[in-house]
């Protein structure tokens, strides 16, 4: 599709969604790896400006956009009620879908792309990197609270938007197939990274085994708890709203904990090419553990809390393996901005896994402190 054609699809979507006011313009927004995100401006009668988030959902990743939007609609309505019961502000503390002019959650354009919109959460920011330990703590209480609020959500009504999303053994199988197929001829270049994964074969099964034994419960989880999926309020500094609800599905609480650690408890960016800048921070791990447990308000079992370090290592290893799989397969999943982008991302994750292994006892001591 040419740029012009793409712009007409954006305008087609804007014309079908029930935005309020006079259309002013739109531009690309944010740093997500999956959806195409835009901010759209509308002028109100009193002259003020109102912004909306418009997203083209990634249909390759999400095979059932209608089911996905049914999940998000159900979850946001549920959260809205809970927030209002607690005298919170449901216009900012949860995503609010802007429906189409005919009342649907999403719009399918003339070439089959799916679009949806949310009210823009103003006076709040998303961080792509931890700038202060306090922000990280505030993101932890927000994700913990999200877990708490959804603990009585009817899980059986949720569609599985990406099957086996955090089934690490299944990811491992895909990875091995990608190595064998080597369709882009990149295998020789990444033998060290492949060996890194293979050496951790047994670890890959630990959480799934605990689940099968009945010692790890399935809960409604977010499954993509990186720092830039929580909005931090400009005034209070608190994590006011958890966003990016595409992957809300039944999952393990320790993976929600772990994915935040993978992204946030690092001294470097997820795609930092200079690995000397990428170190696991035990201090940030400590702060996040404290905040997440406070947010969960006693809803987790002893065993889940005990498995926090395992969740952190699992999500980091799994994510590194996913980046490496995508690199081997020719970068078809994660959005890239340079040729080795996925390889750089994979290497930061493996650096963090090594650091966690070195800090394993210290991580356990931190968790014991809050248990
Ligand atoms: P992706 O799945 O591609 O990561 P997200 O839903 O996380 O997409 O959105 C990408 C970015 O857009 C977020 O990191 C955030 O900066 C911004 N964003 C998303 N929803 C909102 C919203 N309702 N209000 C303000 N900013 C938002
Ligand atoms: C993707 O959508 P985004 O950018 O928040 C990915 C996550 C990865 C993350 C790595 C649906 O998250 O699973 O952990 O990139 N989301 C999906 O940064 O695959
Ligand atoms: Mg996101």
UniProtKB/TrEMBL annotation:
Keyword Calcium: no
Keywords for the protein's UniProt record, in alphabetical order: Transferase
Taxonomy, superkingdom: Bacteria
GO molecular function terms noted in the UniProt entry: transferase activity
InterPro entries registered for this protein in UniProt: Aminoglycoside_PTrfase, Kinase-like_dom_sf, Pseudomonas-type_ThrB
Domain Aminoglycoside phosphotransferase: 114-267
Keyword set includes Transferase: yes
Name by which UniProt lists this protein: Phosphotransferase enzyme family protein
Organism: Anaerobium acetethylicum
Lineage per the UniProt record: Bacteria, Bacillati, Bacillota, Clostridia, Lachnospirales
């Amino acid at each position: 599709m040419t740029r012009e054609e793409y712009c007409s699809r954006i305008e087609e979507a804007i014309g079908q969604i029930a935005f309020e006011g006079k259309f002013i313009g739109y531009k690309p927004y944010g740093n997500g790896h999956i959806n195409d995100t835009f901010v759209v401006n509308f002028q109100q009668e009193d002259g003020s400006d109102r912004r909306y988030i418009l997203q083209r959902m990634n249909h390759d990743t999400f095979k059932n956009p209608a089911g996905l939007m049914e999940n998000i609609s159900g979850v946001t309505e549920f959260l809205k009620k809970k927030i209002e019961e607690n005298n919170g502000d449901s216009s900012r503390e949860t995503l609010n879908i802007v429906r189409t002019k005919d009342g649907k959650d999403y719009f399918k354009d003339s070439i089959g792309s799916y679009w949806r919109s949310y009210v823009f959460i103003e006076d709040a920011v998303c961080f792509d990197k931890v700038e202060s330990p306090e922000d990280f703590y505030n993101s932890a209480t927000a994700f913990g609270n999200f877990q708490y609020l959804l603990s009585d959500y009817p899980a059986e009504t949720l569609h599985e938007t990406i099957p086996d999303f955090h089934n690490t053994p299944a990811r491992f199988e895909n990875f091995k197939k990608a190595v064998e197929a080597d369709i882009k001829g990149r295998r020789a270049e990444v033998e060290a990274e492949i060996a890194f994964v293979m050496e951790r074969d047994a670890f890959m099964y630990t959480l799934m085994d605990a689940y099968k034994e009945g010692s790890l419960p399935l809960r409604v989880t977010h499954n993509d708890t990186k720092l830039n999926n929580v909005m931090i309020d400009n005034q209070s500094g608190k994590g006011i709203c958890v966003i990016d609800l595409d992957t809300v599905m039944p999952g393990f609480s320790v993976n929600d904990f772990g994915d935040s650690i993978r992204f946030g408890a690092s001294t470097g960016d997820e795609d930092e090419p200079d690995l000397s800048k990428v170190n696991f921070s035990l201090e940030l791990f400590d702060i996040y553990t404290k905040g997440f447990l406070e947010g969960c308000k006693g809803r987790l079992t002893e065993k889940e809390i005990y498995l926090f370090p395992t969740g952190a290592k699992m999500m980091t290893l799994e994510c590194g393996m996913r980046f490496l799989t995508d690199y081997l397969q020719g970068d078809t999943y994660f959005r890239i901005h340079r040729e080795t982008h996925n390889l750089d991302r994979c290497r930061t994750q493996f650096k963090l896994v090594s650091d966690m292994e070195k800090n394993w006892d210290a991580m356990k001591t931190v968790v014991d402190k809050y248990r």
